[in-house]
Amino acid sequence: MSDDKETDTASESSYQLSRHKKSPSSLTNLSSSSGMTSLSSVSGSVMSVYSGDFGNLEVKGNIQFAIEYVESLKELHVFVAQCKDLAAADVKKQRSDPYVKTYLLSDKGKMGKKKTLIVKKTLNPVYNEILRYKIEKQILKTQKLNLSVWHRDTFKRNSFLGEVELDLETWDWDNKQNKQLKWYPLKQKTAPVALEAENRGEMKLALQYVPEPIPGKKLPTTGEVHIWVKECLDLPLLRGSHLNSFVKCTILPDTSRKSRQKTRAVGKTTNPIFNHTMVYDGFRPEDLMEACVELTVWDHYKLSNQFLGGLRIGFGTGKSYGTEVDWMDSTSEEVALWEKMVNSPNTWIEATLPLRMLLIAKISK
Question: Per the record, where are the segments of Low complexity compositional bias (predicted)?
């Protein structure tokens, strides 16, 4: 899994969008003991789709780079020269496979990810690459430039090796000294995810709990949860002006493939209208306390999907079927929607909720 892409398996990465409105997925077996073991193993393997692996390696060493605004091209040029004395991801052989990634950061989120090539088996990589951003100088002055160094392992996982952030609002563009190559010490991430609070847009949706899908049946039946994904608003643009977004739904703790449904992809807009209803059955009243609807929005590009933001709608108790889980972390707005749905059966409850950063549980096969 790369630092901010999710490539499911090869069979799904060029996914066929399912048109099925109904995909039976019984939750009832989740409270059984066999469900519990798979559940605890899932909660133990939560990984951030967004940002690779933060905590494991110490941050040390320096990076040498220079920036310049080229007026004639209306471009920011970031000249990444080299790093030295990086942390070793492979402790035994004392080496890493480092590359440098840059973003421009503003109040509206991050844009324009650029990367150098990976230099293998070294703690002192030399890049001598220019990363270019087409951007008006006035807009540039509202940005921060973030350079981060990452180790990419053979499984395409990334480990954070340090970062530098420059505030371009206060940068003196006329000073010739500022165009020279300079060494900067690499620093720790300021927060586990520095962009936690950025705006990721919103989702307009409605939920309905149907306790008795077949009225008048003598035998006790299990209920259904209906999820109507209406539209998203102001999704972030992570690759210039392109966006091809879709919504994926999983009912946690069931991370099996049968639990997942998705909308079609809608291209060329930051306000995609999906109008897609998903139905999940097998809900007993007690399952409503333990389950959580995870809705994630993705940008589909070539063979991979980039995470844009998500919701987790449930009671947010931190526990499911007696086990402590990371994903039971609903915000107060998300909890309010779930409570209203549970308390008003057979009624569509609508809400517009802000999308947020999520740590995504690995999908079990």
Answer: 24-35
How many Å apart are CA 245 and CA 205, to the nearest integer?
16
CB-based contact 283:223 (threshold 8 Å): yes
Q: Kindly report, as residue ranges, where domains of CATH 2.60.40.150 are found in the chain.
A: 52-185, 201-355
CA angle 34, 227, 108 (to 5 degrees): 105
The answer to whether the CB of 326 falls within 8 A of the CB of 46 is yes
Superfamily of domain 201-355: C2 domain (2.60.40.150)
φ, ψ at 315 (rounded to 5°):
-85, -10
Please give the chain's pLDDT, 365 residues, in tens: 333 333 332 222 222 222 233 333 334 333 322 222 223 222 222 222 333 444 467 889 999 999 999 999 999 999 999 999 999 988 889 999 999 999 888 755 566 778 999 999 999 999 999 999 988 898 888 888 999 999 988 777 778 899 999 999 899 998 989 999 999 999 987 543 434 445 789 999 999 999 988 776 666 678 999 999 999 998 988 766 778 999 999 999 988 888 899 999 999 899 999 999 999 998 999 999 999 999 999 998 877 788 899 999 999 999 999 998 889 989 899 999 999 999 999 999 999 999 988 876 554 44
Superfamily covering domain 52-185: C2 domain (2.60.40.150)
